[in-house]
Design a protein that fits this description.
By secondary structure, the chain is of the alpha+beta class. The protein has seven helices and 16 strands. The protein has helices spanning 2-27, 48-58, 110-119, 160-167, 185-195, 236-242, 252-260; strands at 35-44, 63-66, 75-79, 85-89, 100-107, 129-130, 136-141, 147-152, 175-182, 199-204, 213-217, 224-229, 245-248, 275-276, 282-287, 293-297. The strands form two sheets. The protein has an eight-stranded mixed beta sheet. Strands 10-11-12-9-13-16-15-14 form an eight-stranded mixed beta sheet, sandwiched between helices. The longest helix is centred in the N-terminal third of the chain and has 26 residues, at 2-27.
Length: 303
């Protein structure tokens, strides 16, 4: 009788332990896959040929044209390096102020990222998009309606031949950061800081007593977003300045020397003078034909 009771006790205990362990496993949070950095930034342009003259003729990036459907806007891709590129799409409507279409963040596993955001209550697509090349992605909106694409790339081409072919004429081989307008810092922090695990690395303003910019670094890389703090309506011209891409250049003087050889080829372009920014780095602002700012920046502060 005692033996039977012992077996009964152990059986009940085993059932309880199994159900408890199952509940514990079920309750474990969905892990976030690594967010490696900025994969691409896409803009819409009015005149594709003029935009190509800027990104190819002035900045030196080789264009790759793509058209997925007959009715789709034409797309041109400019590779910045083996993991980053800029995209432009034709068809910017008359009177449309917004030119930035999306920012893509590279992740190690797109489906795991979708499941992670779903587990946090974020609205996500029911399935991934898959390109003919095998690239997987999905897109969400951040709290201020910027389109953020999470993209799982194929193996990167980092061979010497790739670098020589793609980057020999380029003024920069690195997207350092992308600027986005931010009206409500708390809401944006809830998304980028708390949900995606970005971290604040710098804040500054003009003058020093005012905060105009907050830099937020991706959790598993060194690229960053720049909160461009706004209040009230933003004009079309201001939006082109605020929604920007920063390209890193090792030497501003060398970049200037290269750009000056291209000012009249294939169309005239007037350069602004470089300046030292609030972060004490040399900076130079360029603007594409639709008024989108492309910022060149040295990697280190002035000594």
């Amino acid at each position: 009788m005692i033996k039977k009771r012992c077996w009964l006790f152990f059986g009940i205990f085993a059932l309880w332990l199994g159900s408890s362990m199952g509940a514990w496993v079920w309750a474990q949070p969905t892990p976030r896959p690594a967010i490696l950095g900025i994969s691409h930034v896409a803009f819409q342009v009015k005149d594709l040929s003029k935009a190509i003259n800027f990104y190819h003729g002035l900045l030196g990036y080789k264009p790759t044209r793509m058209r997925q459907k007959n009715t789709a806007p034409e797309q041109v891709t400019f590779k910045v390096n083996g993991r980053q590129h800029l995209k432009i799409f034709s068809g910017l409507p008359d009177g449309q102020d917004e030119r930035m279409l999306e920012i893509a963040l590279e992740v190690t596993n797109a489906e795991a990222m979708r499941q992670y955001l779903l587990s946090k209550g974020l609205k996500v697509p029911p399935k991934l998009d898959q390109e003919p090349t095998g690239i997987l992605s999905f897109t969400v909106e951040d709290p201020e309606k910027h389109l953020i694409k999470f993209i799982q790339l194929k193996q990167k081409n980092t061979s010497k031949s790739f670098r020589e072919e793609q980057l020999s004429d380029a003024v920069s081989d690195r997207i350092l950061h992308v600027g986005i307008t931010v009206a409500d810092v708390k809401k944006m922090d809830a998304f980028y800081l708390n949900l995606l695990d970005f971290s604040e690395i710098w804040r500054g303003g003009r003058p020093d007593t005012v905060i105009n910019w907050i830099n937020m670094r991706v959790p598993d890389g060194t690229d960053y977003f720049e909160y461009m703090l706004v209040s009230g309506p933003v004009s079309r011209q201001q939006l082109g300045v605020l929604h920007h891409v920063a390209l890193q250049v090792p030497s501003m003087q060398k970049a200037l020397d290269v750009l000056r050889t291209r000012l009249n080829d294939p169309q005239p372009y007037k350069l602004e003078s470089p300046r030292i920014g609030r972060n004490n780095r040399w900076q130079l602002n360029l603007y594409d034909p639709d008024g989108t700012r492309i910022e060149l920046m040295e990697p280190f502060p002035m000594r």
